[in-house]
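Researcher: Sequence recovery benchmark, item below. Answer with residues only.
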């Protein structure tokens, strides 16, 4: 099983109610299992955008940072619960790889927004990306992929 952020497959789960369609991933969707940590954490669609403050996903999991939405509401518990729910899928199905949405407070792999809602980005990872990495899952973002790379991932990790 290969997990992929649901929004990348055209599903309208993004905070705005939209999606982040990725043509390459959509062409190979029959090999991919869609997940959305924020929906899995019972956040509504649409919802105010959220960003990590005082650190990244690793810090959120340690309890030293939080996730706050643009209205100032602390939504950390939703992000942690969503990440744990995705980890349950990983453990149940022995998932080894996930392709997650770049920059997301849940799914960002290398870079996230800085918490100021100004569009500035910093090095770091989202809550779900951090939890999956801590549990041995190889995490990619859509920015890491070209067709050859995706085909290699499918050949290595997909099971019918």
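Model:
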């Amino acid at each position: 099983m290969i997990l992929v952020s649901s929004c990348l497959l055209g599903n309208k789960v993004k905070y705005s109610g939209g999606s982040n369609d990725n043509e390459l991933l959509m062409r190979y969707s029959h090999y991919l299992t869609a997940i959305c940590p924020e929906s899995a954490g019972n956040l509504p669609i649409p919802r105010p955008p959220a960003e990590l403050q005082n650190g990244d996903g690793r810090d959120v999991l340690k309890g030293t940072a939080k996730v706050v939405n643009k209205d100032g509401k602390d939504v950390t518990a939703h992000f942690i619960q969503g990440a744990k729910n995705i980890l349950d899928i990983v453990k149940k199905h022995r998932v080894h790889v996930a392709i997650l949405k770049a920059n997301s407070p849940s799914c960002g792999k290398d870079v996230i927004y800085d918490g100021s809602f100004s569009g500035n980005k910093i090095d770091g990872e989202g809550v779900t990306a951090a939890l999956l990495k801590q549990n041995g899952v190889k995490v990619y973002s859509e920015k890491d992929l070209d067709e050859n790379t995706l085909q290699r991932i499918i050949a290595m990790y997909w099971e019918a």
